[in-house]
Amino acid sequence: MNPDAAPGATLVIGATGTTGSRVAARLSAAGHRVRAASRTARAALGTEGVRFDWEDSTSHGPALTGVDRVYLVPPVGHPEPAGLMLPFLERARDAGVGRAVLLSSSAISMGGPATGVVHQALPDLFGAWAVLRPSWFMQNFAGAHVHALSIREAGVIRTATGGGRVGFVDAEDIAAVAVHALTDEQAPDTDLVITGPGTLSYDEVAEAVGRGTGRPVVHERLGYEAMRDRLAASGMPAPFAELLAGLDRAIADGAEDRVTDTVLRVTGRPPGDFDAFVARELRPSTGGAVAQGR
């Protein structure tokens, strides 16, 4: 990417998803050209919709037209996404993309499973890069996520996390960090672990959701095997169900009991807290998790 050249467009993969939609909206509002990539090619206000499917390589070349940076949301439900992502990233590099920002997870380090393989490859592919490693999303309790569904249907959150604590983070804050990583003059060229302002157990999450919505919610503690089987029974591929249940078990062992200053350091403002998220997205009048799916 030539720093003296006029900037090209940013390809936002997963532009209809939880973080991608927010990244696309923030980039567009700031005056950046955005190619909003999804399987439906749906264009939000101020963006250009473009069809993109990780599993259809014929969609990759056209999506990269005029693009010099890319926001990468991995294919959903794939425990080993590198096989799909790395050929695309090589193609992106060859097409002139010079900056890539990957959405990964706080639970997965460079060289680890799933996106950890892509993380490891990124620095050798692009001159400017970042890997976002957010903790668990607050938005997991809204919309069509399994936790949101169980809250609506039964007033319960089921996990294998025990009393483990998590630095739940608002997707709005993830998107804000992503926009800086994509557009700041100097790319981070590192991974960024992103959390909210504090940690919560799922017992405390249930209490906060109940308090904010006026509907009692409880946390049902499952074992690893029961959680794995429940996820698989919902239609999730078995390897991915095993991965997610294993991440719950890691939370129970303290793997996510941490808070970082990434949001404040990168954006200049503190991250939003869980009660603010509940008030904004889960009150019945907002059409959130308690009232209906989004």
Strand and helix layout:
Elements: E1 9-13, H1 20-29, E2 34-38, E3 48-51, H2 60-63, E4 67-72, H3 82-94, E5 99-103, H4 115-125, E6 128-134, H5 146-154, E7 156-159, E8 165-166, H6 171-183, E9 191-194, E10 200-201, H7 202-213, E11 218-221, H8 224-233, H9 238-252, H10 262-267, H11 274-281
Parallel strand pairs: 1-2, 1-4, 2-3, 4-5, 5-6, 6-9, 7-11
Antiparallel strand pairs: 8-10
Total number of beta strands: 11
Computed CA radius of gyration, to the nearest angstrom = 19 Å
Distance between the termini: 38 Å
- SSE order in H/E notation? EHEEHEHEHEHEEHEEHEHHHH
Shape: globular
Q: What proportion of the residues form beta strands (DSSP E)?
A: 15-25%
Can you offer a commentary on this structure?
A seven-stranded parallel sheet has the order 3-2-1-4-5-6-9, sandwiched between helices. The chain is of the alpha/beta class and 294 residues long. The termini are far apart. It is built from eleven helices and eleven strands. Helix 1 (20-29) crosses helix 6 and helix 3 (82-94) runs parallel beside helix 4.
Provide keyphrases for this structure.
single chain; 294 residues; alpha/beta; 7-stranded parallel β-sheet; 11 strands; disordered N terminus; disordered C terminus
Q: What's the short story on this structure?
A:
The protein is of the alpha/beta class.
